[in-house]
Automatic annotation (TrEMBL):
Residues 206-284 form the Orotidine 5'-phosphate decarboxylase domain. GO terms for biological process: 'de novo' pyrimidine nucleobase biosynthetic process; 'de novo' UMP biosynthetic process. Pathway: Pyrimidine metabolism; UMP biosynthesis via de novo pathway; UMP from orotate: step 2/2. The lineage of its organism: Eukaryota, Metazoa, Chordata, Craniata, Vertebrata. GO terms for molecular function: orotate phosphoribosyltransferase activity; orotidine-5'-phosphate decarboxylase activity. PANTHER family: OROTATE PHOSPHORIBOSYLTRANSFERASE, URIDINE 5'-MONOPHOSPHATE SYNTHASE. PROSITE patterns: OMPDECASE. Residues 63-116 form the Phosphoribosyltransferase domain. It comes from Tupaia chinensis (Chinese tree shrew). This is orotidine-5'-phosphate decarboxylase. The keyword Nucleotide-binding does not apply. InterPro entries: Aldolase_TIM, OMPdecase_AS, OMPdeCOase_dom, PRTase-like, PRTase_dom, RibuloseP-bd_barrel. It holds the Pfam family Pribosyltran.
């Protein structure tokens, strides 16, 4: 049952205003021409809207009365069409010993996903259905009646029918073959530095890169010496060091050789504000700035 209440209308409007719902002629990955396109990725940069989404998802889960006893896991999805992505997630979770009985979705496109999930023992609880979304947007005069009918007709003509009714889940897509770091290091056209890094990662059994954004050279060297055995790469900002000298770099290179890690100098001026300020204040560029 779609979530009701005063929060749904403003949420749908907010999503429409940030173009999460688009109405025109779109060619989908399947090759179908669709009058509606739904893209919710943009809400991650809209904190207020993201908070609304989180609140209403939580409210929907509460209203559904879902119990999380022991190893029960709830799947949360943004959009459900055929339900395949939810089923793939469920199978992976079940292989790890988790129990999945329910899924929450922000928007159910009403194209057979709910029935397909139900056939596999998964109850789908939607915050909003596509029909309800169209109703709200039409009432608010965001879209006209002609577009509403066009979308509804498209949905009715493109419903996915649940094929499995025996409770078994469809096979998960075959994962690509995993290659070891050593094998990847030998791939053709790989950059020599990338190859060296991969070999270090294999040898030291680590993929840790330490971001040493410190302004004191002695602190930088102490960090490199203490953590060098555990990392494969050290990221530096030598231009923010207040006491930068070439001798410091020689010592750092010696430590890199001793502990077997690469040095990655993060050289750019389009960084975050605090880093850019430190770059101009650091000794590396102080002489250049004073002479301008």
């Amino acid at each position: 049952m779609a979530a009701a209440g005063a929060a749904l209308g403003p949420l749908v409007t907010g999503l429409y205003d940030v173009e999460a719902f688009k109405f025109a002629n779109f060619v989908l990955k399947s090759g179908l021409s669709s009058p509606v396109y739904i893209d919710l990725r943009g809400i991650v940069s809209r904190p207020r809207l993201l908070s609304q989404v989180a609140d209403i998802l939580f409210q929907t889960a509460q209203e559904a009365g879902i119990n999380f006893d022991r190893e029960t896991c709830l799947v949360i999805e943004d959009v459900v069409t055929s339900g395949s992505s939810v089923l793939e997630t469920v199978e992976v979770l079940q292989k790890e010993g988790l129990k999945v009985t329910d899924a929450i979705v922000l928007l159910d496109r009403e194209q057979g996903g709910k029935d397909k999930l139900q056939a596999h023992g998964i109850r789908l609880h939607s915050v909003c259905t596509l029909s309800k979304m169209l109703e709200i947007l039409e009432q608010q005069k965001k879209i006209d009646a002609e577009m509403v009918e066009k979308v509804k007709r498209f949905i009715q003509e493109n419903v996915f029918v649940a094929a499995n009714h025996n409770g078994s889940l469809p096979p998960v897509k075959k994962a690509p073959k995993e290659l070891s770091f050593d094998v990847r290091a030998e791939l053709p056209r790989i950059h020599p530095v990338a190859s060296k890094l991969l070999r270090l990662m294999q040898k030291k059994e680590t993929n840790l890169c330490l971001s040493a954004d410190v302004s004191d050279a002695r602190e930088l060297l102490q960090l490199a010496d203490a953590l060098g055995p555990s990392i494969c790469m050290l990221k530096t900002h030598v231009d923010i060091l207040s006491d930068f000298t070439l001798d410091v770099m020689k010592e750092l290179a010696t430590l890199a050789k001793r502990h077997e890690f690469l040095i990655f100098e993060d050289r750019k001026f389009a960084d975050i504000g605090n880093t850019v300020r430190k770059q101009y204040e650091g000794k590396y560029y102080s002489g250049i700035c004073k002479n301008q």
